[in-house]
Write a structure and sequence with these properties.
Number of strands: 12
Number of helices: 21
Distance between the termini: 31 Å
Oligomer: single chain
Helix content: 55-70%
Length: 608
């Protein structure tokens, strides 16, 4: 028999098509850019506009609101992205378009203005919408129907994208902490450029994958015209039900970039005790976003191998079962956040150990590895050919709805701050705060000076105890024990009497001078007034805002408990109704096998 040489797109590496690794590295760098930016997003939005490295100056509640909308729109745009691929361009060209939009969007995010920030976010939303559903569908297109390698291929693909997320969490997080938010955003954009280069180079390994099925040269052009069969309709129903699982799963899981990100920044003791650079002495909060991706790299093949072993033992291993188990395991991870919340509440202005965050992300990751890559593979098995990209788009849209749910849950965990106005002179403030170090550039050299923040129009905090005292609320400096009431007054405008509301709350909870509540008073200068040269360092136009620590701790604990209970109960209900749902799949997963062995033995596969 004559020797034959396989075409580039038919060649394999480590038992999988080389095209898988092209898509692997493309998505790896795309995820580097996305997760690098995502890890900074909420922290940047919630950072004071008068901080040393200014953010947008929004409240944490507002930051989580924007986070929910942004992450929802990123994934909801997968629906038009899927439609563009199915109706006009095909998956391959739509991925190319998405990559170009992402390169442009991340580049604009590096510009330090609020207009550029929101413009960059809009382009990233459009870019991810074009790229995300179609590149995942292309992975499924690398394998023939019934090929048992498909699930493992998706797991390898999943490891690839999380390698990018892992590197982003560490590298971008450290760069942003040391050199500023916008340099962090810019570094994330460089990752997207690398991903686009890999994708353009690897086109020869993707021949016949992701082409427009309506094109004249397409072998599947007839599939675009055929109506759905009864089996295909039933399978679409199962997919739509599975999308509900997706919403619940990601509604809990995506607390990682929102609530858990803020919690890590404020309530977790990130001091390592090591010497060396500042980022090594205290780990930046954004770096913890790499934990999930790091765990995926470590445990991805282990979990995939476990499910193959489990199936060979004849145990239940359908995609729906794995998704239910994944939801339960992920939900149990929030028990560790409950422990963290309890530990932080044991002392005034207390912080939780990093251990709880490590354990929470470990359970979240194991749950994700059971549910998410399987869900991607499940769609490519059940979705009709003519609606392949649209169904994948709906999946990512449901992921987006889950993200919006995550944002809404995060919002509900944050109290509206009490607000007031500073009435004291800046000299009166000096006795309650310490001087801070500030650096400035003089003739190319960095010079460090110490000064009071109020002289620099910067924000500062004072820890305080508060309790009812007659018909008013008394604030005392936590360290010095002196009264702070002369520094500011609460907002008592019509319809917004902060003093009476706060006083009533403290009395209702039996707060006394001997057993006070505690808060961090945040002093911030009006952002617009700070831009006026004659106002520089005058100590005027400062506002104060604060939340009660005890109230915020209790609220966060209840939210973590609610998420745990709901996800576990939901997963158990899915297992109860599993058999009824499997009937509607018409055995889509019943005959999976390793096609490489059968083809090597000369067997041909009959159509189902």
């Amino acid at each position: 028999m004559a020797n034959t040489v396989k075409a580039a797109h038919q060649k394999e590496l480590f038992g999988h098509p080389i095209g898988l690794f092209v898509l692997f590295f493309t998505e790896m760098w795309e995820r580097f850019s996305y997760y690098g930016m995502r890890g900074l997003l909420v922290l940047y939005i919630a950072t004071s506009a008068t901080a040393n490295d200014p953010g947008l100056g929004w409240t944490t509640k507002e930051a989580l609101w924007l986070y929910g909308w942004y992450t929802m729109l990123v994934y909801v745009m997968s629906i038009p992205g899927g439609i563009i691929a199915d109706k006009w361009l095909g998956q391959k060209k739509t991925v190319m378009l998405g990559g170009l939009l992402l390169c442009l969007g991340h580049g604009i995010l590096a510009i330090p203005t609020s207009t550029a920030f929101f413009g960059g976010l809009a382009l990233v939303i459009l870019g991810v919408g074009c790229l995300k559903p179609n590149i995942s569908t292309m992975v499924g297109g690398l394998y023939k129907e019934g090929d048992i390698r498909r699930d493992k291929g998706f797991t390898l693909f999943y490891i690839g994208i999380n390698l990018g997320a892992f590197l982003a969490g560490i590298i971008v997080g450290i760069v942003a902490a040391k050199y500023g938010w916008h340099l962090g955003f810019g570094l994330a954009g460089i990752g997207m450029v690398l991903g686009q280069i890999v994708y353009m180079w690897g086109q020869k390994y993707l021949v016949g994958v992701g082409d427009f099925i309506g094109a004249k040269e397409s072998v599947n052009k007839e599939a675009a015209k055929k109506p759905l069969t009864k089996i295909e309709k039933d399978r679409v129903i199962v997919l739509l039900i599975s999308f509900l699982i997706v919403i619940v799963f990601w509604g809990a899981f995506e607390q990682a970039g929102g609530l858990m990100n803020l919690y890590t920044d404020v309530k977790v003791n990130r001091v390592t005790g090591f010497g060396g650079p500042e980022w090594l002495q205290e780990i930046p909060a954004a770096v913890f976003q790499s934990l999930n991706a790091g765990y995926i790299i470590i445990f991805g093949t282990v979990i995939a191998g476990f499910w193959i072993w489990w199936r060979k033992k004849g145990k239940e291993s359908s995609s729906l079962f794995k998704m239910a188990i994944g939801t339960i395991i992920m939900g149990l991870g929030f028990i560790f956040m409950m422990f963290a919340s309890k530990e932080a509440a044991t002392e005034n202005f207390g912080k939780a150990a990093m251990f709880w965050i490590f354990m929470a992300y470990l359970f979240h990751t194991i749950g994700e590895l059971c549910a998410s890559p399987v869900a991607l593979s499940f769609i490519t098995k059940l979705a009709p050919v003519k609606y392949a990209s649209i169904m994948m788009g709906i999946y990512f849209a449901c992921t987006g709805f889950g993200n919006k749910l995550a944002g809404a849950i995060g919002e509900s965990s944050q109290l509206e701050p009490y607000e007031g106005k500073v009435i004291a002179s800046k000299e009166a403030v000096y006795s309650f705060v310490d001087k801070a170090a500030y650096t400035k550039d003089v003739d190319g050299k960095e010079i460090t000076e110490k000064d009071y923040a109020i002289n620099r129009d910067k924000n500062f905090e004072i820890r305080a105890a508060l309790y009812p005292q007659g018909d008013k609320v008394a604030f005392t400096d936590y360290e010095r024990g002196t009264s702070l009431n002369s520094l500011f007054v609460l907002d008592n405008s019509e319809g917004n009497n902060e003093s009476s509301q706060l006083l009533a709350y403290l009395k209702e909870n039996n707060v006394t001078k001997e057993n006070p509540y505690h808060t961090k008073l945040l002093f911030e200068k009006d952002e617009e007034k700070a831009k006026i040269e004659v106002n520089k360092g005058d100590g005027k136009d400062y506002s104060v805002s604060f939340k009660i620590e005890e109230q915020q701790n209790a609220l966060e604990y209840n939210i973590f408990m609610m998420i745990t209970l709901f996800t576990v109960i939901f997963g158990l209900l899915l297992i109860v109704f599993l058999k009824k749902l499997k009937v509607l799949t018409h055995g889509a997963e019943d005959n999976e096998r390793d096609l490489r062995n059968e083809e090597a033995e000369g067997f041909e596969l009959a159509d189902n």
